[in-house]
Amino acid sequence: xxxxxxxxxxxxxxxxxxxxxxxVTGLTAVYKLSRPKKQVEPKKQxxxxxxxxxxxxxxxxxxxxxxxxxxxQCANITDKYGVVQFSTGDALRAQxxxxxxxxxxxxxxxxxxxxxxxxxxxxxxxxxxxxDPSMKAKGYILDGVCRxxxxxxxxxxxxxxxxxxxxxxVPESEVVKRISGRRIDPxxxxxxxxxxxxxxxxxxxxxxxxxxxxxxxxxxxxxxxxANKAGALAPYPSDTVVHVDGLGKPEEVWARVDAVISGTKAxxxxxxTRAALGF
Length: 279
Fold this sequence. Notes:
With 279 residues, this protein is of the alpha/beta class. It contains 12 helices and 7 strands. The protein has helices spanning 2-9, 14-34, 70-81, 88-98, 101-111, 118-131, 133-138, 149-157, 172-180, 215-233, 250-265, 270-276, and strands at 58-63, 84-86, 139-143, 164-169, 182-184, 191-193, 241-245.
């Protein structure tokens, strides 16, 4: 088209026309060669979160504030689903008692009254899960194991990430009521609660309250839990994290927890489970 236009208006200067056309063609070729090639991005495959898959053996984790009902629900989960309950404290004590190399490392810090470093804790977690035949066969529930983002990141990298992370949501006011109402009978050593399990009137005056069961201490513990919770859950795909209402009678909370786990075991996504529960 450009050549025809030039020929129309400069027909008497053929050599100039041809030179001009050649120059334009050359410049066009140079431009095409120098222009960076458009990168073709590889087609992204849809991410399938572990919580979307059939979990066999089932791997779970549970989170809850102090007095959030975690112990009760862990017992229900192990009873119905047969998974092994795993807590860092129990695993540490088992390694120390067995006299393993990791146990000896941990004992050195414990005997000195120091906190066991994260790298030793991580070794304990990984070796316990990998070497325990019951956990390999039945699966496990991590009970308060991943309290920080660092530990959760380790669990992901180590290939022992839970299929489902259950978070029991309990309001601060309810937690304070549950803990501050606790009392202990120094004679029988029996525990009571002034609201939920009141003592017989004749012994009420002799009951004592633990020093850390007061509102001030409880609120500080809650702050620490909330400060770490978001980081602890951050490394996991969102479909593997399901919040469950922790208010109500233990059996009511269990019905919600059981429904979530059943859905995960059947391959239902965490997102669909949350939607079904109204979250």
